[in-house]
Amino acid sequence: MIFPGLTPSNPMPGFNFAVAFAESAGPAGAIAQGGVTRVSAGFQEISGLEASLEIHEYKEGGRNDYTHKFATNANFGNITFKRGVALTPDLWNWYAQVRGGSFGARRAILIAQLDYERNPALVWYVSRALPAKFVGPSWNAGQSSVAIESIEVAHEGLELLPAEEFVGGGG
Question: Do β-strands 17-22 and 68-76 pair in parallel, antiparallel, or remain unpaired?
């Protein structure tokens, strides 16, 4: 065997995930407020879960065969959540609260990739999220599609947490 100790795994299905928003500052508080088993909103799509590092290049005098490269700042892309329009305007209320000047309305967001038994397999913690953009539904009387709303959130950090902390937890 070329790589002893490694076992292959099947890719996780992209449709099996859960989301929880919490008014907490950290992952421990988000877990205490229900973790990923208390889904605050059923989303049909999440996009933009990304992180990147800025790379600084340093050209050392007398070294013409390579350039030193150093990682500097981490940057996180905005995350977009899409769902069918709900009768509870929770996403709009959060957006309106921040738009009105309440910058203390930051949220912790937990996004869990669920396994085939609907247990968290991978859990991403999004820290200090604020709504950056709200998009309401488009209506067309000639179609029978579901009205979709979305919210784009800016945030200050992304962590991958141990899924074991979430299995069977929350209410």
Answer: unpaired
Token pair in block for residue 73: 């700042």
Q: Which two tokens stand for residue 101?
A: 């000047």
Burial string for 11-49 (b: 16+ CB within 10 Å, else e) reads eeeeeebbbbbbebeebeebbebbbbbebbeebeebeee
CA gyration radius, the chain: 20
User: Cα(17)–Cα(39) distance, rounded to whole angstroms?
Assistant: 10
**How far is Cα 142 from Cα 163, in angstroms, rounded to an integer?**
44
Only one residue has tokens 């309401």, namely 136
C-alpha distances in Å from residue 148, one per residue of 44, 66, 131: 9, 51, 17
Task: Quote the Cα angle for 96-97-102, to 5°.
Answer: 140
Gap between the Cα atoms of 20 and 40, Å rounded: 5
What pLDDT, in 10s, does the model give residues 45-101? Answer: 999 999 999 999 999 888 889 899 999 999 999 999 999 988 888 889 999 999 998
How many other CB atoms are there within 10 angstroms of residue 127's CB atom? 19
103 within 8 A of 166, measured Cβ to Cβ: no
3-class SS shares of the chain: helix, strand, coil, % to 5: 10, 40, 50
Are residues 124 and 165 in contact, defined by beta-carbon separation less than 8 angstroms?
no
